[in-house]
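Fill in residues.
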């Protein structure tokens, strides 16, 4: 449980240290994993604040000289970003079916896509 701003910063710094990063041709410190921070607000006004830092997407052309493992990682990142885009599109178009089961990232964010009432 976080009760002070210092506690919150400590938790964010701990999570930041767990992020996977690696240099790419386009970025010296490219995020190779997504980060999600959900803060539950309690008290008179309840809610959840969700902060997301998505891993960078890569064009196929930019990653064609990478190892097969790195190409697979890039494909997984791009697939999860596509799934996130599809959920946002469905929510914006007031679609009753939100495809949040398409990736781990969107499953974590399920509550963000659900409608009130």
């Amino acid at each position: 449980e976080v009760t002070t701003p210092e506690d919150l910063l400590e938790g964010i710094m701990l999570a930041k240290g767990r992020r996977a990063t690696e240099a790419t041709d386009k970025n010296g410190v490219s995020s190779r994993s997504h980060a999600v921070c959900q803060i539950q607000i309690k008290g008179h006004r309840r809610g959840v604040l969700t902060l997301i830092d998505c891993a960078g997407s890569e064009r196929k052309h930019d990653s064609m000289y990478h190892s097969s493992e790195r190409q697979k990682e890039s494909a997984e990142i791009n697939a999860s970003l596509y799934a996130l885009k599809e959920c946002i599109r469905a929510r914006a178009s007031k679609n009753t079916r939100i495809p949040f089961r398409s990736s781990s990232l969107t499953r974590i964010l399920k509550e963000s896509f659900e409608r009130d009432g």
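Strands lie at 21-22, 30-31, 35-41, 47-53.
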